[in-house]
Design brief:
9 strands, single chain, membrane, Epox_hydrolase-like, alpha/beta, 9-stranded mixed beta sheet, globular
Length: 449
């Protein structure tokens, strides 16, 4: 009898554990309904006959702003010297910060760079109470070509400056391709020359509503998308919320950070060959080393998701501090800043944050994304329903094998691997554009079948 009870107990315990785990797994696998979001008003006051006009815009930096910037740069306090034998282990090396500050003050020609930034047609239009800034670049040659509307989105700490070398490739006919793109590149709300929200709640799903309305105002009912970083989050939300408008999406920051994906990543750590080629296993395994790298790279993330206004106060007052905080994210795996980027291009991006005093409002996106109200919408748990392409860059923040992407991107039809880093449109525009063109060719073939 005792033997029978022991056997029953030994059977009952693992069966119960399996039952509980299956129930938990099924819960993680549940897909919530797509929420219906309204056209909320994010500007000051109350909605009153919004002006739908689209107005040309040019960057015009006042002498007062330039003089103030130079005054602050000249009077920057001496920085604490770096520890002996260190590079950027403690954050950006203060010797490099000094080089950046000196270049900005003595070699960066603001008026020349202003002309550079004004080379593309720019506009503003008010949507849901916010003035939204965007570049709108049409192809010069269209004869015999399909012209495809394309919305491209930047992230943090980036801006539309990331796209200045990318856009000409997209709007210039490519040999052997029968299509070219008409590009719309907005500054996300709270970034660059776009207004920030005046009340809480503007996260990526709500930004998706604004940008969908921008495209409709420009008479694009159906369009393609390409994005990275926060832009890729907004892009995925747009595809989930408005698949009737988004034809296909190409992502250079494909990721799934759901609890289900994390569990899969850990379990596959026992058999990594099941999900990733041997030559790429070092990018995700051993699991402990992978999560250690993520923690080391995302120290900024937690404070921006909880107290963005605190750090924003310092960055809004010190151009040197702002440059150090932003450009630390552009340092490559070899500890180099200007091997893949020019100092002018990097400071163009910093200038956009400085002259608009928008670092605080840009960082608030982290806090808005990770509050309970937004999480409860469940948009992140809904798979992207449209054809998806993914360009993976090995020195990005994290590498996601295809097996870990399929839940989020069930229609993943094109995937590629590259050696570069996070800011692909700025670092390697030709590589990113080629992959995007290859992806769109596949989409067009699917449409013709």
């Amino acid at each position: 009898m005792a033997c029978c009870l022991l056997i029953s107990f030994l059977v009952f315990i693992p069966v119960s554990i399996i039952f509980v785990l299956k129930k938990y797994w099924d819960k993680l696998s549940e897909i919530p309904p797509v929420p219906k979001l309204k056209n909320e008003w994010w500007g000051p006051g109350q909605p009153e006959g919004e002006d739908n006009s689209i107005k040309p815009f040019e960057i015009n930096i006042s002498d007062e702003v330039i003089n103030d910037l130079h005054h602050r740069l000249r009077n920057t306090r001496p920085l604490a010297p770096p520890l002996e034998g260190t590079r950027h282990e403690y954050g950006i090396n203060s010797n490099l910060t000094k080089e950046i500050t000196d270049f900005w003050m003595n070699k960066y020609d603001i008026r020349q760079r202003e002309k550079f930034l004004n080379q593309y047609p720019q506009f503003k239009t008010k949507i849901q109470g916010l003035n939204i800034h965007f570049l709108h670049v049409k192809p010069k040659e269209t004869q015999g070509l399909k012209v495809l509307p394309l919305l491209i989105l930047h992230g943090w700490p980036g801006s539309v400056r990331e796209f200045y070398e990318f856009i000409p490739i997209l709007t210039t006919p490519q040999k052997g391709r029968n299509f070219v793109f008409e590009v719309i590149a907005p500054s996300l709300p709270g970034f660059g020359f776009s207004d920030p929200a005046v009340r809480p709640g503007l996260s990526s799903p709500q930004i998706a509503v604004i940008l969908k309305n921008l495209m409709l105002r420009l008479n694009f009912d159906r369009f393609y998308m390409q994005a990275g970083d926060w832009g890729s989050v907004v892009m995925s939300d747009m595809a989930v919320l408005f698949p009737e408008h988004v034809i296909a999406v190409h992502n250079n920051f494909c990721m799934d950070i759901s609890a289900k994906a994390i569990i899969k990543r850990i379990l596959y750590g026992f058999w990594p060959s099941l999900i990733v080629e041997k030559k790429y296993q070092h990018l995700i395994y051993p699991t402990k080393a992978f999560f250690k790298r993520i923690l080391a790279k995302t120290g900024y993330f937690h404070i921006q998701a909880t107290k963005p206004d605190t750090v924003g106060s310092a960055l809004s007052d010190s151009p040197m501090g702002l440059a150090a905080y932003i450009l630390e994210k552009f340092i490559d795996k070899e500890g180099q800043l200007t091997k893949r980027f020019t100092m002018e291009a990097l400071l163009d991006n910093v200038m956009i944050y400085w002259i608009n005093n928008c670092m605080t409002t840009a960082m608030r996106l982290y806090a808005e994304k990770y509050n309970k109200k937004n999480i409860d919408l469940g948009v992140d748990k809904i798979p992207v329903p449209v054809p998806t392409g993914c360009a993976r860059f090995h020195f990005d923040m994290a590498y996601f094998p295809e097996a870990l992407l399929k839940d989020k991107y069930p229609n993943l039809i094109h995937i590629s691997d590259h050696e570069q880093g996070h800011f692909a449109a700025l670092e390697c525009p030709e590589v990113l554009a080629t992959e995007f063109y290859n992806f769109i060719e596949k989409v067009l073939k699917l449409q013709n079948n």
